[in-house]
Amino acid sequence: MSWADCFEQAPDDVTVAEIREALAAHREASDAGEDSNDETGAASDPPEPSPTRIVADADVLAADCCLDGEARAALDLLRQHSWTTLVASDRLLAEAEAIIESVGDESLAADWRDCIEVWREPVDQPAGDHPALASAYRGGAMHLLAFGDELTGSAAGAALHNRFPVSVRQPDAFTLLFDPESLYEADLSGEYSGPDRDPRA
Predict the structure, then answer these.
(1) What's the whole-number average pLDDT of the chain?
(2) Quick check: 38 pLDDT over 60?
(3) Residue 38: helix, strand or coil by DSSP?
(4) SS3 198
(5) How many C-alpha atoms does 149 have within 13 Å on its Cβ side?
(6) Percentage of the chain surpassing pLDDT 70?
(7) pLDDT in tens, 127-142
(8) pTM of the predicted model as reported, rounded to 2 decimal places
(9) pLDDT, tens only, 97-138
(10) What pLDDT is attached to residue 77?
(11) How far apart are CA 139 and CA 188, in angstroms?
């Protein structure tokens, strides 16, 4: 299953607002104890933070699958560069999968899960932690993509910076600011030769 094959199955009439509503409903049910995907046990120590390690919240992951828009443009930048790493806990993927099934169908959600499992680097998260924030902290990610104001607002950003070095942005803002040449040369100490991977493979 390729990303191109997965995207071809996406519904025609889904909006980011509908995806956000589905995520809110899923998390409300989870908070009420109706979700069985909580991870348990102690999480491993996080690696050294790196700007090449990125997390996308469940709404961004679902929008990437279902919409040819801002989320897909942002994640295409990562799919194009093998030296970037998408970090995600099982709980984060389970949330996105549930959203995709809600706004799309079970087949699309299953195919998306097959694609994302090949791409993402898994991390553990303690039960009860916010899936995207836990993935960023436990995975050493310095960028977090999200649509929700609860993560992208200035107050949330200031609070997070006091805990660990992460920048939270909307997907379109990340796309505008992402500079692969400068990032590669600064973090990997080499000469950037352009994208090295097919984002639809």
Answers:
(1) 91
(2) no
(3) coil
(4) coil
(5) 1
(6) 94
(7) 889 999 999 999 999 9
(8) 0.93
(9) 999 999 999 999 999 999 999 999 999 998 889 999 999 999
(10) 98
(11) 18
Task: Give yes or no for a contact between 66 and 16, defined as CB atoms under 8 angstroms apart.
Answer: no
Nearest to 85 by CA among 177, 200, 197: 197
Q: Hey, what amino acid is at 53?
A: R
Distance separating alpha carbons of residues 47 and 27, to the nearest angstrom: 27
How many residues comprise the chain?
A: 201
State CA 56 to chain mean position distance: 2
Sign of torsion over alpha carbons 125, 30, 23, 8? positive
User: Helices (DSSP H) in 67-193: which residue ranges?
Assistant: 70-79, 90-103, 106-119, 131-138, 149-152, 154-161, 171-177, 180-187
Tokens 């995806």 belong to residue: 19
**What whole-number distance in Å separates Cα of residue 129 and Cα of residue 63?**
22
What lies within 8 Å, CB to CB, of 86 at 6+ separation is 54, 55, 56, 75, 78, 119, 120, 121
